[in-house]
Fold this sequence. Notes:
Layout: H1 4-13, E1 19-24, E2 41-47, H2 50-59, E3 65-69, E4 71-73, H3 79-84, H4 99-106, H5 108-111, H6 116-121, E5 136-138, H7 139-145, E6 153-156, H8 162-168, H9 172-175, E7 180-186, H10 198-207, E8 210-215, E9 218-220, E10 241-251, H11 259-263, H12 267-279, H13 283-292, H14 294-297, H15 303-313, H16 324-332, H17 360-380
Helix pairs in contact: 1-12, 12-13, 13-15
Amino acid sequence: MEPGPVIDYINQILPDARFTLVDVGCSGGLGGEWRRFGRRLRALAFDPSVDEIERLRRVETSEDVKYVAAFATISKDHPFAQKKGARDHWGRNPWNRLSVTNWLEKTASERAEMDSGDLASSGLWSETRLVDPAEEIVIPDYLRQVGLDSVDFVKIDIDGRDLEVLHSLDAVLDEFNILGLMLEVNFFGSDAETDHTFHNTDRFLKSKRFELFDLTTRRYSMATLPSPYSHNWPGENRSGRILQGDALYFRDLANPVNVDLASHIPVDRLLNLICLFAMFRLPDCAAEIAVEFRDRISPVCDVDHLLDLLVAQAQPGVGSPLSYEEYLSRFDARDSMFFPQRVVPAPAESPTSSQGGRNESASTLHGSIKESLLSKWRNRR
Length: 381
């Protein structure tokens, strides 16, 4: 089941509670998944492509979704900006050796004749008409200027200053109780602390008590042996080295070490976090929030119904999904539904049916796992 029913239910019980999205690098528009929040959605979206911002404004139907044409940056006196100085955004960049770069170089004359719409539809946002470089904004300053005091989710994808913009948010991550972020990350780079790399992104967000919940990878082939593109425009390839990806971070509020953070999160924001987990195909994490904070959310939410919706999402393609209670009972019984076809545990027996209370089915299962591990070890020799 898709995450829609979970979000629809929370929209129903919290019709006036806002869900706030900040999208830094919004070319192409907001993803359709965000529209599921309906009239609860409030979004601020930034991009330096003048033509794209104008297009998005023309087609936008919600007064609560605002598009801003500007470059996002960091204050020059910010400690991160001071440390970075004049360094590039990254080191050891293989861009000039990639097949996509070779393609772009060979088609430069053709692209010069394309209008902004064609460039945009080809994913070449950086080649459209851009705002004056002087039109820079520091995201936290802008959010305060427009009167925001809370943000649920931040997305950053600007092909360069991503790590700078992330560091610019350092003070508001707690001030605005930001629940989650998705950032484009690079898997190349040096060991410099200011390089826009995954390891620097991860280190910073871990220091702010965010945890990594998902990570995608995008492959790019070298010019010496090009691979087919993954989409109908020049970009990532079907094979090649992993070069970039998207990292998904959330507050792990169910972790006991974050009890102080959780105490400051209002009930409606806890339910927004459940929506986010469901939307990013993490119904188990959403269920953990529902169970952990049952006492706080039960006055406004039928927690048992919510858990049934989440467990239905965890059973894709099932016509009549089990309830949450039935699902956990099956798990406790070591039902074969939790194992791949090649590893099916023996039916559970009562402790009294085995000598000394030893469960024979558990022994069989442990033996299967042990044999599987031994087989893997033998194959590596």
